[in-house]
Amino acid sequence: MYPFSFTTAVDEHAALAAGRSGARYIAGGTTLIDLMRETVERPGSVVDINALPYRDIDLQPDRLRIGALVRMAELAAHPAVRSEFPVIAEALNLSASAQLRNMASIGGNLMQRPRCLYFRDVTSPCNRREPGSGCPAVGGRNRTHAILGTSDQCVATHPSDLAVALVALDAGLIVRDPSGDRAIRLTDFFRTPGSAPEREHNLQPGELIVAVEVPTTPPALRSGYLKVRDRASYEFAICSAAVVLDMQGPTIRAARVAAGGVGTVPWRLAAVERALIGRAATRDVIRAAAEVAGEGARPLSENGFKVDLLKRTVARQVETIAGLR
User: Locate the FAD-binding PCMH-type domain: which residues (predicted)?
Assistant: First the structure.
């Protein structure tokens, strides 16, 4: 670990000032400290923001507002979240270990760095760490890597389960700087690597994530999260599916489907949604819709299996939420 200065922000003004000066924000520290120990991250200054008042979970008629400093375990256990937004609770409970969920904040979870063994190995080239140095995963060990949203510059997956659930719920972020607040849809927040993989999101220097806002949904809405992984606990997704359905009888009136473990960002499956909306929720309809989940996929040498796995994962979870399983 490289030397760094550490301060505690006593209020929002101090936190924003520190951010404008180049300090890195820390809450739970479950990602940043880990990467600092491995010298992947080398900030000169770190500021603790846990004194800031971003800890409310507020359910209103039109939206659920989640403070950025709410802990993952707290949000997963909240009665309103468990009953009204089960996909959030399920995604959180399938994330990391109990100890990490007790520490990690919601804002920090969304700001996780990519999942890639080359990114974490400072002896290897990596365009995320050192732009222009190369991406050895493209032709190397890439079983766990992305098949959607990739480029020749980067094929790393986004690691957050929660982000997949929030993308399916059409959630957004409230971010703040000294000039005020701005809202960003989560689908517009994360950036695919393109030719600039070091730019992972659209948060500006010195901005703070204040809250996540999730629009409320019709009473008939159903949701859930399915995670496929190599072992039963404390493991990243090889593939996952967050499914949100609004049904009237057997008919799917609205559908939102997102996938994790397969994209460089949490991946919204709009083509699957279009194939479901207005149709009866039969196995044939659902499986036909799931067949388009892999559109645009670019499998690598070791992860071609993810194309079929994605289709099966989406089909299974849609069937589950539609009540066919």
Answer: 1-219
- pLDDT above 90 as % of the chain: 95
Contact 208, 226 (CB under 8 A): no
Residue 248 lies in a domain: yes
Residues pairing with 8 in the sheet: 48
Say which amino acid occupies 201: H
Residue at 247 is within a domain: yes
d(CA 65, CA 172): 10
In angstroms, how far is CA 273 from the centroid of its own chain?
19
Q: 83 Cβ partners below 8 Å, 6+ apart?
A: none
Q: What is the pLDDT of residue 220?
A: 60
Q: What CATH number did the domain enclosing 28 receive?
A: 3.30.43.10
Which range of residues forms the domain containing residue 25?
1-48
Q: What is the rounded distance in angstroms from the CA atom of residue 77 to the CA atom of residue 101? A: 11
The whole-number pLDDT of residue 140 equals 97
Residue 257 sits in a domain of what CATH number?
3.30.390.50
- CA neighbor of 154 nearest in space, from 175, 128, 177, 178: 128
CA atoms within 13 A on the CB side of 296: 15
pTM over 0.85: yes
Domain count, the chain: 2
List, in order, residues 6 or more apart from 108 with CB less than 8 Å away: 27, 28, 29, 30, 31, 32
> Cβ of 241: how many Cβ atoms within 10 Å?
34
Q: Does residue 7 form part of some domain?
A: yes
What is the pLDDT of the chain when averaged over all its residues? 96
Residue 82 falls inside a structural domain: no
Nearest by Cα to 241 from 181, 298, 294: 294
Distance CA(70)–CA(221), nearest Å, equals 25
